Amino acid sequence: MIKLYxxxxxxxxxxxxxxxxxxxxxxxxxxxRPWAAHPEVEHLAPGAAAPAxxxxxxDGRLVLLGSHAILEHLEEAFTAxxxxxxxxxxxxxxxxxxxWCEDAFAIVSETLLTERVTQWVRREREPDSAxxxxxxxxxxxxxxxxxxLAEERSYLAGxxxxxxxxxxxxxxxxxxxxGDVDWSTVPDLKSWYARLKSRPSFRPLLSERIDGxxxxxxxxxxxx
Length: 224
Hints:
Elements lengths: L1 E5 L4 H12 L5 E4 L7 H4 L9 E6 L2 E6 L1 H11 L10 H17 L1 H17 L6 H24 L10 H14 L10 H11 L5 H5 L17
Parallel strand pairs: 1-2
Antiparallel strand pairs: 1-3, 3-4
Helix pairs in contact: 1-3, 1-7, 4-7, 5-6, 6-8
């Protein structure tokens, strides 16, 4: 049995959920908000935070904390579907771009996504316009880079779907929930994302809604 502690709009958790979906692994989702940590997560280990995965089976109980630990474990333990290529070069490229996505989108999540959550989910204060501008500017640069990759490759790291694709799609989908991705400026990336959205692993993400919010009109549209 697999139990996943996560928050639906967290890109790291979304990456894990997409990987679980690609590997066709059923799991029990437990929602935990970043600003109000779940008490069960806090007891897993000192400083533990979501995403966190608990796996129970014949080999006992396994605790995995953070998206990297979770995803590397899933790739090692469930090999029927590979999300890191069998070729060394493409595997290295997937890991490079997976890390790039996490590092490059950090500033976008800390500014643009955080302000959207503050405005529409938590409703604690008026959004910080300077943070919104900073995040939007950073996002444009990330989109340009990813669009160049999508123009040349079937998938971001090469010929096969990889964790790089899932990480990028997870970040973009969280931002797209609020309509912050201008797809008209990145046509090749839009085509790539449309293919990712059409995969069965994406359906749970597209169908859920955060209490008190409305997703962008095109968010769940596969032909957007």
